[in-house]
Amino acid sequence: MTESSLEETAEKIFGSEHPAAVAHWVDYWKRGHERNLDLLRSFEEVFLLDLGKRRVLDAGCGVGSMGEVLRERCGHYVGVDVNRHVLRFSTPAARRSYVQASGLSLPFAERSFDCIFAFDVLEHLPGGLLNQIRFLTELRRVLRPMGTILFTTPNFWYPYDAHSRSYFAHYLPVRLADWIHRRRHPAFLKEHGSTADIPLLTPRRLRKCIHAGGLTLLHELPCCLDRDQLSHLSPLKSIPAYLGLGWYVHAEFWGILCRPDARSGLRLKLKTRLVRLDGDSSRVVWQDFEPGIDFTRKSFSHQLDRGWYAHEPGPPGYRWIAQESVCYLQLEGPVSRLRIRGFSPQGNRIRFWVDEICVGEHSMNPKSSFDLTFFLPFRPPEDRMVKVLLDCDRTYRLERSDDRRELGAVVSSIELLP
Questions:
Q1: What is the pLDDT of residues 53-107, one digit of tens each?
Q2: Do 170 and 243 form a contact (C-beta atoms < 8 A)?
Q3: Are 286 and 355 in contact (CB under 8 A)?
Q4: Domain extents for the chain?
Q5: Of 57, 48, 47, which is closest to residue 116 (Cα–Cα)?
Q6: Coil, strand or helix at 127
Q7: Which of 4, 317, 328, 335 has the least C-beta neighbours within 10 A?
Q8: Which residues pair with 78 in a beta bridge?
């Protein structure tokens, strides 16, 4: 992609009599890499976004800047855009491809992608609300059950419109707004046709689109925050949030969408939870959830909940458990067995639960190892988060007077197997 070729395309759109519009259009696409990198970092600050083995769809990819940002950071990247005049500047490469298609009818099978980017696309769908809903419904169709959609779109109630680079004009009737743009910002009409072709979303309209599209926000507010987090970061903005107006205070909506039945599992990947659980953000390794935990390989702190002890004496590759300990495993295929390995310093009985169903128990002799496999009495749905609970009859304390932990046993690995 060269600056001269971008200028040639821009002059075809705006004409040589609008040099400022040509320069702005060229600069916008030239800065696409920087803009997409900033957006990606913003989402990575709040959510565990590990794309290493994932299939990514970039809906409304433009010149393919996000594909350049990701490069080797995902399993495979597919960029889609309806506009050939910008898509032709994209550069296919290994694990990276581009397709000209409408977001209202994507040429992909159901459940094809783990992560979808939809940056500043909703407001560019002509046809208004019906097509905006149709677009989100189509994204849901190609999204895997535990997948996420990262989106941004401007807030109608913010007075400045970046498309026309004007204040308040989008509040006016379409004919009047177009009349003003024809005299003050004619380049806007040359690129977009009419104010009606940029249907900005109000908070109410966005909520309706999300709900009608069969999706839900991962956070309570469309700014990747819950109300209590907003209260901590910005006390003034939190006041309208608690009055039910938290959607109205943002210049732009940006958030993470998912299927409603996956929301509770995906919220386990919020960075606030992971840092609080580990207690030391400098030691957190941001890796995705897996269907198994092997402490001989990694710490897996992010997949653990209550009842695990991070610092303990004893051999490496083990973690102590309390009387009750919980962890989470993310499935990507069918499973039928639960395997647990570990060691018991004392005589004990331990029970194993998968999604609140007891799948087996085991009596342990003092100072004995165990390697147990239990067949599940049910088949968990694929592509979901599974809760595993370990429940000991007895606990004991180490002989150190300053150690008040109630210890049950040590575990080296937990995994769900086909």
A1: 899 999 999 999 999 999 889 999 999 999 999 999 998 988 899 999 999 999 9
A2: no
A3: no
A4: 31-163+198-269, 289-417
A5: 57
A6: coil
A7: 4
A8: 57, 97
